[in-house]
Amino acid sequence: MIVGLLFGFLPLLIWLYLLLGHHFFWLLRERDTLAVTAPDHWPSVVAIVPARNEEDVIVRSLTSLLAQDYPGEFRVIMVDDQSEDRTATMAQVIADARLGVLKGGARPPGWTGKLWAMSQGVAEAGAAEFFWFTDADIAHSPDNLRQLVARAEDGRKTLVSLMARLQCCSSSEHFLIPAFVFFFDMLFPFGAVNDPNRKVAAAAGGCMLARREALEAAGGLAAIRQHIIDDCALARIMKKQGPIWLGLTNRSVSLRPYPRLGDIRRMVARSAFAQLNYSPILLIGTLIGLFIVYIAPVLGALFAMYYVQLAAILAWAIMAVMFQPMLRFYRLSPLWGLLLPPIGVFYSVFTLDSAIQHWSGKGGMWKGRAQASDSEAVGHNNKASANKAVGRSEGGA
């Protein structure tokens, strides 16, 4: 009875719920393809680009920003987050008066590096009506900002964010990248995020348009300064100020390839344990849950009998079907849907690796800096010092 429940009926019930009762996240209905009405007034926007060791992509990223077909006032601030390469030099080669290159200062205690760089950009931006936070390895289509602002002004949203299309060319990317977005959407259903009556909040850090007055009312970036998963932390405080919107897009594209499994492992491990609030109990529960959801149906389909085997086969089939819209978005064969169980195993290993890194003092590793332990311990216990630092640099943002 217990074997049948574990390897057949329980996974089937879980996948039936995900299929029919989880905001239909897998249909990818939250897209930026639907036209939005242009506002009567095009507000001022400053794009803020935190950059650390991005010399290989920074010119393409900044050039795409400066090519925006935006009718309102617009400029770009790149914050060089103490790069050890030629990031700043490459950016300064771009001859455009709308581009400012800011040399970032040392990170104060209690701040993650990216958020501190963003904060310095906010202080430099002044009284713009919107801040467009975008990563240095993201390129944007010329109409992206126009669409973002129009969507933000429709219903006075406090935050509009797009999940950038990730690179998906190598075999490792084919295997793991579509699932990365699929799992994110499962964890934070975009439909629930976009529902003002639901508390679920999330954003994608590669492209976030934030309303300045709402950000100030939420306490500014200082309110989330210690968070490794800065985009979702920003979404939570912004949703308290008003509606937010998150969708999938082709208008923002990642320039960063992940040609090897190790590259994707490092990307996931940087923040996976942080998502579990660094809790060993939640980690154990998550690993057990991943086993039940992804591995048990395969074992039941291959080795069980009668109704248990049938239930396991149905669960496996449902997950393969649910994965199809994401595979179509990335233009991959539908047969990849059958491989979702082993893909789930890899992400389980990455999650465990994230915890091991944290326990070894290397949590939140980003561009050569381990930030998790420092940002949490000091961020929670030394708020007065960090507030003083942001008061000097952020100017009330």
Structural commentary:
The chain folds into two domains: 2-25 and 264-379, no CATH class; 29-258, Spore Coat Polysaccharide Biosynthesis Protein SpsA, Chain A (Alpha-Beta Complex), CATH 3.90.550.10. α3 links the parallel β2 and β3 (99-103). α10 (261-269) packs across α15, α12 crosses α13 (306-322) and α12 (280-303) runs antiparallel to α15. The longest helix has 24 residues, at 280-303. Residues 373-397 have low confidence and may be disordered. It has 17 helices and eight strands. The radius of gyration is 22 Å and the shape is globular. The termini are far apart. The chain is of the alpha/beta class and 397 residues long. The protein has an eight-stranded mixed sheet, sandwiched between helices.
Count of discrete alpha- or pi-helical segments spanning 4 or more residues: 17
Number of beta strands: 8
The residue fraction in helices comes out at 40-55%
CATH architecture verdict of the largest domain = Alpha-Beta Complex
For the biggest sheet, the summary is:
8 strands, mixed
Mean pLDDT: 91
Strand-pairing-aware structural class: alpha/beta
Query: Shape from CA axes?
Result: globular
What would CATH call the class of the largest domain?
Alpha Beta
Low-confidence stretches: 373-397
How far apart lie the N and C ends?
Answer: 59 Å
The domain tally reads 2
Side by side, the strands of the main sheet go 3-2-1-4-7-6-8-5
Q: What share of residues are in beta strands?
A: 5-15%
| CATH fold group of the largest domain | Spore Coat Polysaccharide Biosynthesis Protein SpsA, Chain A
Element order: H for helix, E for strand:
HEHEHEHEEHEHHEHHEHHHHHHHH
CATH superfamily of the largest domain: Spore Coat Polysaccharide Biosynthesis Protein SpsA, Chain A
In angstroms, what is the radius of gyration?
22 Å
